[in-house]
């Protein structure tokens, strides 16, 4: 049940936050491996311009590009991530009665472990989601677009071209992204929740506690995860050769190095604003729905 509750909560959250994920993906891919001073024209500069560009080129529906894949990604990722973390928390592995000071480190470790498991389960859906979100009918400065007609078509096309390996393109980067993000999110959420529950106002409201804790967790998650997120998007969306090998990046280290050499530190934080605007409310909604569903489960034993 812990796994089902985690997946359901994330699917509810992504319905609200997918448009920001689309904007984040477009910004991360714009001007790929081009120095900032050499990028003469930008279609996705800032939230407002990015929003207007998507609406002009793809219509209002463009803001929900890749939604079916995003729902599948969120369910597979968070059902495993939150379910795993809740299971080890129920077993008492995230706490130490003999050494209470170790609790934050245990939360980081098990949050990272949950991120590793969830990255493995959700990687194919992330690949499809990213490639669908990157496609636009308008002028676009990304190096490559995968023209899939839909979610199912994307799975079929990727498999035909590169086999199972294609569905796990960028897997090391995806693992790094989710391990860092999950460790930061779950650890900060647990610590903040424990701090807030010391006060009467939070003890009286599960939702208020979850909102406050997840707001802080979303901040730490977005700051620490952004470089890994950019690398994952780039490796996932890159063009491939006839035998399925990436034409721009050979591995995660090559991607990190090429971005730094071409775009500097700035390249690691492309799309940071929509990412934060997405991660913070998504984390808030996800963990709030999670706490709410757990409360219903405890109350009704469903």
TrEMBL record:
SUPFAM superfamilies per the UniProt record, alphabetical: Mitochondrial carrier (SSF103506)
Keywords: Membrane, Mitochondrion, Mitochondrion inner membrane, Repeat, Transmembrane, Transmembrane helix, Transport
Statement: the UniProt record of this protein carries the keyword Lyase: no
GO CC terms, sorted: mitochondrial inner membrane
Its membrane topology: Multi-pass membrane protein
PANTHER family: RE38146P
Protein's name according to its UniProt entry: Mitochondrial oxaloacetate transport protein
């Amino acid at each position: 049940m812990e796994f089902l509750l985690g997946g359901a909560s994330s699917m509810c959250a992504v319905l609200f936050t997918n448009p920001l994920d689309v904007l984040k993906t477009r910004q991360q891919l714009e001007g790929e491996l081009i120095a900032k001073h050499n990028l003469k024209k930008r279609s996705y500069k800032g939230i407002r311009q990015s929003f207007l560009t998507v609406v002009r080129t793809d219509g209002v529906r463009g803001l929900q590009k890749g939604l079916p894949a995003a729902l599948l990604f969120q369910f597979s990722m968070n059902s495993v991530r939150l379910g795993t973390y809740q299971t080890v928390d129920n077993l008492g592995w995230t706490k130490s009665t003999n050494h209470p000071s170790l609790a934050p480190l245990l939360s980081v470790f098990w949050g990272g472990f949950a991120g590793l498991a969830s990255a493995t389960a959700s990687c194919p859906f992330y690949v499809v989601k990213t490639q669908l979100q990157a496609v636009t009918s308008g002028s676009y400065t990304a190096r490559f677009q995968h023209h899939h007609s839909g979610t199912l078509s994307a799975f079929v096309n990727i498999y035909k071209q590169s086999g199972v390996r294609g569905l796990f393109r960028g897997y090391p980067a995806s693992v790094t992204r989710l391990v860092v993000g999950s460790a930061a999110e779950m650890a900060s959420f647990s610590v903040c929740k424990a701090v807030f529950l010391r006060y009467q106002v939070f003890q009286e409201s599960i939702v208020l506690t979850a909102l406050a804790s997840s707001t802080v967790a979303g901040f730490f998650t977005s700051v620490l995860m952004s470089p890994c997120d950019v690398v994952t998007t780039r490796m996932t969306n890159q063009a491939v050769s006839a035998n399925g090998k990436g034409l721009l990046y050979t591995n995660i280290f090559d991607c990190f190095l090429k971005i730094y050499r071409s775009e500097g530190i700035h390249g690691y934080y492309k799309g940071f604003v929509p990412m934060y605007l997405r991660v913070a409310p998504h984390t808030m909604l996800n963990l709030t729905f999670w706490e709410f569903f757990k409360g219903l489960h405890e109350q009704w034993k469903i």
